Amino acid sequence: MDWNRWYSLKSYLRSSLWIVPLIAVAIYAVIKPLTEMLGRWMTRQGILDPQTGLLGLSMTGARSLVGDIVSADLAFLVFTFGSLLVAIQVAGGQYTPRIIATTLLRDNIIRSISGLFVFTLLFANRTLAWMGENEVHQLQVFLASLFGFASVVAFLFLIDYAAKSLRPISLVARVGERGIAVIESVFPAASTGAPTPPKRDRGRDVPDRIVRHRGNSGIVLAVNLERLVAAAQRADVVIEFVPQVGDFVAVDEPLFYLYGNANAIDERRLRTLVAFGTERTMEQDPMFAFRILADIALKALSAAINDPTTAVLAIDQLHRLLRMVGKRSLRVEEIEDRSGRVRVIFRTPNWEDFVHISFREIRQYGAGSIQIARRQRAAIENLIQNLPEHRHDALRIELTLLDREIASKHHFPEDLALARIPDSQGLGGAATSTAKQPARSETKHAQTHHGHR
Question: What value does the CA radius of gyration of the chain take, rounded to a whole number of Å?
């Protein structure tokens, strides 16, 4: 199987809810015959009394118990999948549709509990059908009761877990955690100073060959850089990947530019090193985590929802991710082989891209909210204090734009002065500072007071 097909398959399986229940069916097909053989052996050896067994149940009691387990697990499954559909609708409408495949459907706890319900249902149903007229298979009934008890506990836990997982703080925190993981993967090296522009050879101005996209249009999910470097080294060429991970590429658009001995490259094999899909994922796309968090903030700031506090939670995570990415070396455009020769040109987002997606849209839609203005200012000033000097210019531009935006939104001097105070909570976290302000809150005086902070 080609690499891009294998990658797309793995990505699909990670975001598919039905995979774990299907594995539970396979486990049941192996475990149930083994437990039946074990039960018969224990009965023949006299280890297990066929009449009293481990629970001391009669035929009527055993049938009733196992039947209740079957009914309960069937109800658990219906409730779980029904509730999940409702949760998906709520999350998509309240937060952003992009959180469904990246967070909800990839939750291993929900998938594992669903697998337990399926396994217990099949096991108990088979135990009920396997019991004869006069024989109670005591080991099977005991195991079915254990699985049934585990299902009840898991169901109660699932209700609590799902309720907590759908809270805004839980969702944005999970996106933030995944964003940190992909940042560490894509940008492993620490920043060593201001990035220098790549030194391109004059021979790379015009490509010797263009490899175009074939098949179906789609979004670039990932690129196998190791194999791409190896292919370029074998053919003694330089390969430039034209789009960026997360870009939409239509059929017949340029996919690769080849420089040098371009005819030595097999186009078909080169295309297999790029995975396409219908929706962006976070595996090699650090910008997607920023996009999801920004979308959550924008949805919360919409007139239909009007929940700036949720937007503040999203800004918290954007601030966290910017602190991480600001300390990383983002210049990986030219990838060299072991001999130090450039083999692959691969574009990634730069610092300005991350800053823009974190602040611009949220500022445009939310600067009228004092919470948003104060939280963005606190984030920007904290980043300026903690990140290297070469990261400050883009942040100072955002701070200037924020000042201009809130000046146009707040016409009362008291509101303007309050909006210009940085606050990590949005509103309420800087009560001590605001209390020290004089009663007469002139705009010019508020600016001076803020400057001393």
Answer: 29
Q: Has residue 352 got a pLDDT over 80? A: yes
CB 257 within 8 A of CB 250: no
Q: Residue holding tokens 């995570």?
A: 317
Question: What number of other Cβ atoms are within 10 A of residue 156's Cβ?
Answer: 10
141/136 Cα distance (integer angstroms): 8
- The pLDDT score that the predictor gives to residue 205 is 72
The answer to whether 255 touches 240, Cβ cutoff 8 Å, is no
Number of C-beta neighbours around residue 12 at 10 A:
12
Q: Which amino acid is at 407?
A: A
CB atoms closer than 10 angstroms to residue 270: 20
| Cα(128)–Cα(131) distance, integer angstroms | 6
Between the CA of residue 421 and those of 264, 268, 371, 381, 432, what are the distances in Å?
Answer: 61, 57, 10, 11, 11
Q: pTM, whole model, 2 decimals?
A: 0.82
Neighbours of 4 (CB within 10 A): 20
pLDDT given at position 189: 85
Residue 452 CB coordination number (10 Å): 5
Buried b (16+ CB within 10 A) or exposed e, 14-46: ebebeebbeebeeebeeebeebbeebeebbeee
**CA 24 to chain CA mean position, Å:** 25
Angle of CA points 257, 262, 266, to nearest 5°: 90
Rounded to whole angstroms, what are the CA distances from 200 to 191, 206, 209, 259? Answer: 22, 12, 17, 12
Q: How far from each other are the two terminal CA atoms of the chain, in whole angstroms?
A: 60
Q: Is 66 left (phi over 0), alpha (psi -120 to 50) or beta?
A: alpha
